[in-house]
Amino acid sequence: MSWKEIYKNRLVKPEDAVTHIKSGNRVVVGHAAGEPTELIDAMVANKENYRNVEIVNLVVLGTAPYAKPGMEEYFHDNSIFASTHTREAIECGRADFTPCFFHEVPKLFRKGYIPVDVALVQVSSPDKHGYCSFGVSNDYTKPAAEYAKMVIAEVNPNMPRTMGDSFIHISKIDYIVETSHEIIELQPPKIGDVEKKIGENCASLVEDGSTLQLGIGAIPEAVLLFLKHKKDLGIHSEMISDGVVELVEAGVITNKFKTLHPGKIVVAFLMGTRRLYDFVDNNPLVEMYPVNYVNNPCVIMQNYKMVSINSCVQVDLMGQVCSESIGLKQISGVGGQVDFVRGVNMSEDGISIIAIPSTASKGKISRIVGLLNAGAVVTTSRTDVDYIVTEYGIAQLKGRTLRDRAKALINIAHPDFRQGLMEEYTKKFKCGF
Ligand code: COA
Q1: What separation in Å is there between the alpha carbon of 356 and the centre of ligand 1?
Q2: What residues have CB less than 8 Å from 201, skipping those under 6 apart?
Q3: How far does residue 416's CA lie from ligand 1's centre (Å)?
Q4: Euclidean distance between the first and final Cα of the chain, in Å?
Q5: What pLDDT, in 10s, does the model give residues 1-32?
Q6: Contact, 231 vs 209, CB < 8 A?
Q7: What pLDDT band is residue 287 in, cutting at 50, 70 and 90?
Q8: What is the atom index within ligand 1 of the atom nearest the CA of 189?
Q9: Of the four listed, 139, 171, 178, 371, which is most buried by Cβ atoms within 10 Å?
Q10: Tell me, what's the pLDDT at 194?
Q11: How high is the mean pLDDT of the chain?
C-alpha cells in the first residue's frame, strides 16, 4: 500500500482518535510548543469515557486542562517539569512530579520504567516520501512515539519541517488528525538593566569560536545581546529561541569551529515566535535530535570550548545550586541544567555558568544565601558547579575551598545582603571575612 493510501485509511476526526485511549492508559503528550492542543482538547472533552488516564509531560506551554480541579477522576498528571499550568496541581497533590535528567527521559520510556501506551503528538505535513517532521519538538516527543504502543498525531501544515533525526513515517502513525492551528509561540522576555548587566558579565566569559548552550528566559536572551561582536560562535543546545536567529543573520553564529556537527546548529526543541519557526523550516543549518543525544553529557563534552548558561533560584555559600524549587514548592525541574553542567565539566576546555539576578521578589530576598531554604532541591551540586554570575560580577568556584567559594559568592551578592552573609561566613568558618 502506498503511504498516501495509508494516510487516507488512518485519517480520523479528533473526537474519534481519542476514543482509542482507554482507562488506565499512560499518555505521553508532545512537548512545549509542539503540544497537540486539538487532540488534548478532544481527549478532555471525552473524559466521561475514561478513568485514571495518566498524562506525562515536561514543559507545558498549553493550559493543561487535564490537570484542572475536577479532573482527578479522569486524569492524573505526572510532570517531569513543573510549568505555569501544572505547578498548582503538583502543589495541591492533584498531580505528581517525577525528577529526571532531561537526557534520561527517553530511557525511562525505552526501559519500561515509564512504559508508553499512547503518544499524542503533532507533526508537519508529510513530504513526498511520506515522512513527517517532529518540527519544533523532537526532544522526548520522537522517542515517546517510537516506544509507544499507539501513536495518534496531529498533522499540521504550520509545523515547520525541521531537519536532523526528526522524522516519522506515516506508516508508524496509527491515527492521523488533520489540524491547521497556529503553533504555540513564546514571545521574547522583557530584558531589564539587571539582566543586561548579567548578560554582559556572562558574555565576557565567552571566547570567539565557543559553542553555546542557552537556557530559557530573560538572562540567556540578554547574553545574546552582548555577543554581537564575537566571532564564529556555535550552538549545541537543548533549546533555542528567537535571539539565535538574529545572531545567525548577523554572521556571529557560524558553527565554523564546532568539533561535533561542524557548520550546524544542534538542538532538541524550539520555543519562540513564528520568526524562529519560519527560520528553521526546511533549513539544513539547523539539525534537531532527540534529547537523549543532544543532552547526553558524553555528546556535549565532544564540543570544543563549550559554554553552558543556565539560571537558578538560590545558591548557598558552598555553591549548592537550587534551580527548581522555592523551599518545598516545585516550580520547575532539573531540565537539561545538570546534563550540560556535567557535559561541560567532562570537556577539556568548556565552562558552565549559572547566571542569576542577585535578588528575587523585587529586591527583598537575596538569591545568594547562607543555607538553602528548608526543603530546597539541590539541582547542581557543589561538586559540579563552576561559574556563578550576577549583575555584580563573576565567582569562579571549581577547585576552590569552601572558604574561598563563600568569599567569592559574597562579593557578587547584592550589597544590601553582604553584611548578613559575612556574619554567616564568620559563624561557619570561625574567622573574620
Ligand atoms: N526566593 C523566593 N522566590 C524566588 C527566588 C528565591 N530565591 N528566586 C526566584 N523566585 C521567584 C521569582 O520571584 C519568580 O516569582 P514570580 O513568578 O512570582 O515573579 C519565580 O520564582 C521565578 O523566578 P525567575 O528567576 O524569575 O524565573 P526564570 O523564568 O528566570 O527561571 C529558573 C529561572 C531557575 C526557574 C529556570 O531557569 C529553571 O527552571 N531552571 C532549571 C532548568 C534549567 O536550567 N534548564 C536548562 C535548560 S533549558
Answers
A1: 9
A2: 355, 389, 390, 391, 393, 394
A3: 21
A4: 77
A5: 999 999 999 999 999 999 999 999 999 999 99
A6: yes
A7: very high
A8: 29
A9: 139
A10: 97
A11: 97
